[in-house]
Amino acid sequence: MASTQHALLSPAELAYLHAALSLTPPIRPDGRSPAQFRPLVAETGILPGTNGSARICFADGTEAIVGVKAEVERTRGGYEGEIVEGGGAEEVVTDVNDEEKKGESDWVEMTVEIPGLRDDDATTAFLGAMISEALLADGGFSRRLWINRRFHWKLYLDILLISPPLSYPLPLLSLTTHLALLATRLPRLKSEGDEDPFFDDDWAAARYLYPRNKKDGKTTARPPVTLLVMAVGNNIIFDPAKEELAVADVALAVSIGEDATTAATATGDDASLMMDVDSTTAAAAITSARNLRLLSIRTIDPPSRLTPSGVPNATNTAYGAATTQKQPEARTAEAEAVEGVWRAPRGGAKPLVMAALVHKVLEKGGIADEVLDALHAVDLG
Amino acid sequence: MASSSSIALPGQLLGPASKFQPGPGTHIHQSNLYSSLLGVVHISQPAKAPGPTKRLTKITPAPAPAELPTVSVSRSGVSEKREVLPEVGNTVLCRVIRITPRQAVVAILICGDTVLHAEWQGLIRVQDVRATEKDKVKIYESFRPGDIVRAEVISLGDQANFYLSTARNELGVLLATSEAGNNMFPVNWKEYQDPETGVSEPRKVARPY
Amino acid sequence: MTDRRRINGPVGATIPLVFEDVEDYEQVATKAARSRAPNAVRKMYLKTGVTPSASGSAYLEIETSGKGGVSGLKLSCTVYGPRSLPRSSPFSPHIILSTHVKYAPFATKQRRGYLRDPAERDLGSHLEAALRGAIIADRWPKSGVDIIVSIIEGDQDRETSKTQGDEAWDIMNALSGCITVASAALADAGIDCVDTVAGGVAALVRDTADSSPSIVVDPIPSEHEKILASCCVAYLPTRNEVTNLWYKGDLPASDMELYTKLVEKGIQASTNANRVLLECLGETVN
Questions:
Q1: Whole-number Å distance between alpha carbons of A228 and A168
Q2: pLDDT digits (tens, 9 = 90+) for C169-218
Q3: A358 CB near a chain C CB, below 8 Å?
Q4: Min Cα separation A204/chain C (Å)
Q5: Interface partners of B (3+ CB pairs, < 8 Å)?
Q6: In angstroms, what separates the C-alpha of A318 from chain B's closest C-alpha?
Q7: Residue C251 is part of a domain; what is its CATH number?
Q8: What superfamily in CATH does domain B80-202 come from?
Q9: What is the crossing angle of helices C167-189 and C118-132, to 10°?
Q10: B7-77: CATH architecture
Q11: What is the Cα–Cα distance from A48 to A61, expressed in whole angstroms?
């Protein structure tokens, strides 16, 4: 869990950080605004041996590589009888409508590797489950892996964190996976219908897993992105660093996707048609056309719950508090919270706070829009 | 000592923090006292409260200037199995496991009057064995493996051990076995004697009550 | 790679033919309906102190949906501790929680192995997050507590085909049960908690292909045509706080109302479970 990586901060430092982040506007230790992300360097297609790959390097030195490998696999439960040539009833259906293309979640296998953590560590399992959960949320992704009724692609996503986890690695891993999937290409299918698949050798002819627009080379649909959001006091802070997460009241991982169908119409003819009518409404239409989907939300156990609490002066014997107890080390009594003295938070978060966090991510022109816009700008090569 | 008693569930409101002092098994949330255990509520009046309540002292509250009744929730009567954590100031009974020239390693068996189920390890360092002539103390002249010792907790210690002290007259070895394997009886403040062989062995002897 | 240590079957194996019984098929089709009101949760049975050797324990059973052959959820939770940490672990000013959730090998339609798979580990970390918010960790410095939940019977309909039910949704019900039963066992073990935490599930479902989606609490996935979204909430009723929220599904982001309602219903389901929990704890004392 998040709690396994402690930021080594004293109670006084924690109290100071908490107070600074609770101000309006909050003052973050690295001077970012509440919704500002850390700068990052991203590139795709770095590994020629894979079907798709990406690398992202954050400014703080954390770096992740994702490689995507695809294999053809026989579909379980699909009919495996021979297709008899000219066999009366067994007619080979060539056009399968989209409804029939049904994917299964075990067509995608995801492994996360974080240096210094065991493979069976809870953090690794949690991160892997979170990223694959978002990917498979609507069943739309595994449908892309459908070849015919007998065969499908099996996708292996290997996520490697190269640096030690200096901050909670979820946003980094999610973004890298996002880019790797955008860059993923599968060989062009030459065979037809349900016969054994046979592919084009020409890599240049390979199709993108997420098809792109001919005109601008941008994709229409996009894989999901997971964002890390936290709340301190009344403030909502995005992309928290490790130190900020150490004083979080609540932290959420929110996965969002982009609906393909409406985005396509917006970039297509509809938008230009609207342009003639009124440019302002058209601009509004384009921004609203990004049809965001809420795919998954998980509560991250904030490490703040495992931070050491401070001792207020009133009960600190070193500051002349009533020394009725002989031992200065005796357990601190249960007492009211004192202003400026750090206390590890207890309990959970109010439902309203959680709703506000999610709302902040999803609102029009909100963070989700911004992040997706930024990802659009990444050159996919 | 309990002026009234009733059952409390975790999260149950016990009263405002301005009227009561929080005792063991309670916590404060937004100026109110809530129960944090499933158990019986005790409200003890301040006149009697400062006494040695060694029953289930998870938290010993520092008496506030205004003497308020202490409200606590205890597990006694609810479940036979109750676990307590040895705490600074508690008197514990322990068995010596092994000795080195610098320290004696003990297993804490009883804390206050509660038998512990879990194994907590304690450490009596050579400087904590007795109050006087600390520099002349030798561990092997004070404890032997297998002895039952009454000691006081002086620190939560490091990750593995609680630090204990026997630097008081009533603290020290209570039961000892001789090298011949017989139970011995104390003869003076630093010796136990074997009733059969008549050989005496050095120990840090606890004063009998 | 071929397995040379065992005697293998013939290479060109065929799948036995399965004839679909028309009558049975119809029966299955009619079965798949929810008989409860959308706001009603299933009845549950909770008892603490079932494992004498453990510091605290509890057993939870959720009623079957009233049809034969459908297993309810059966969970058993044991809590060991607080006890001293192993020598190798560093000093901790707090209690160290370790949660293990394990499906019994026979709990689900498909047999599970003895080793915990990633899904079970994931359940364990969800449970840990839910409980960590509820316990008062600094009451027990340098001690650890092990919380072990065994799912004796998963909430799965044996009658439905493998393709119909999706295990991904069943896991939400399992988690909410785990949270409730672990909370009871923690109270039984005498570990300080700020409140009693209980789990609740709500889902946005579509019953027939062309009907409008509706929100139900405590859903049984096999009773619905399609589950669009589902959320599991761990809720502290007296503090009005959520310690763990797990949402999964596909909702338009423009419709925040739907999401808010879903969470509200989850909280409602959790409050219902909490009532059972409090009654059970009250019985333990008397």
A1: 9
A2: 888 999 999 999 999 999 998 898 999 999 999 999 887 777 788 899 98
A3: yes
A4: 33
A5: A, C
A6: 15
A7: 3.30.230.70
A8: Nucleic acid-binding proteins (2.40.50.140)
A9: 40
A10: Beta Barrel (2.40)
A11: 24
